[in-house]
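I am still getting used to backbone structure tokens and would like to learn alongside you. To get us started, please write out a protein record for me. Once you have written the record down, we can walk along the chain together.
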Amino acid sequence: MNYIKLGNSELNVSRICMGCMGFGNAQTGQHSWTVDEALTREIIKYGLEQGINFYDTAIAYQNGTSEQYVGKALRDFAKRDDYVIATKFLPRSQEELDTNVSGQKHIENSLNQSLSNLGMDYVDLYIYHMWDYHTPIEEIMEGLDVVVKAGKVRYIGISNCFAWQLAKANFYAREHGLAEFVSVQGHYNLIAREEEREMASFCYDQNIAMTPYSALAGGRLSRHPGETTKRLEQDTYAKFKYDATLEADGKIIARVEELAEKYGVSMTEISLAWLLTKVTSPVVGATKLSHVDGIVRAVDLLLSEQDICYLEELYIPHALAGVMAQNGKQKSGNVV
């Protein structure tokens, strides 16, 4: 495993971040395909043994059970200084808005609940899960700075935002001597490259780490045509993101398959090796021990410039989907 500094922080993270959305009680929360605590522990233990020291979860994943499973496994299998844990908080709920809970208080409450779930005194990276159009960014940045200064958070990151929003937030923080976002977690992979329009260049200029989610497009970039999994069948959110572009994406996936056969490696390795030429540490989920092997091997696979161009040349612009599609409407003033 190779390691790298996370943007403008002092955190040394593995080139692969283990995404923990697939861990948690399948009977509660958004997803029905998540794995139980016993398998979660096996996967995390194996990931640690393979050198993965960076783990990403969220308070929203399976109603906090992802945080609970992940926190206990990390506490049992590693020393606190040997791993980097990231978790995320959501925008204020409608109930909080109705009862005038401030942005700062919301952050404090969310973080305390996450720390309780994780069984930890602090998190290394606390991520603003998605832009809250009902809360001024000044409140968010000031609230995050408070928890950093309190020692409950080492660094802060952001997810699901536009480049102008990241710039606005960090420049406000810089002007007022507050903690700045050191990383951004957006939707970015070989068949979803809209982050290259503005976000990638801004992050390169400001040394902000890109740690994209959906690195394998919900398994689409790691499976041969016709292969299926429980997640591919049941992940309705991923279907929403990718089904509209099946034909165009399929041509790119075929090239991933072609290069995998050429080099005698998995499609996972090809897809991640490409992404690793673009970003700091992609967030990659694993719901089987064998998944860990593939994502770790990708770190050592070097693609030629010709390979990279071959994988990229068929890409066509994609409409924003999911959270970012909704955010795209809100940023124009049409709050939905």
In short: The first strand starts at residue 3 and ends at 5. Confidence is low (pLDDT under 50) at residues 332-336.
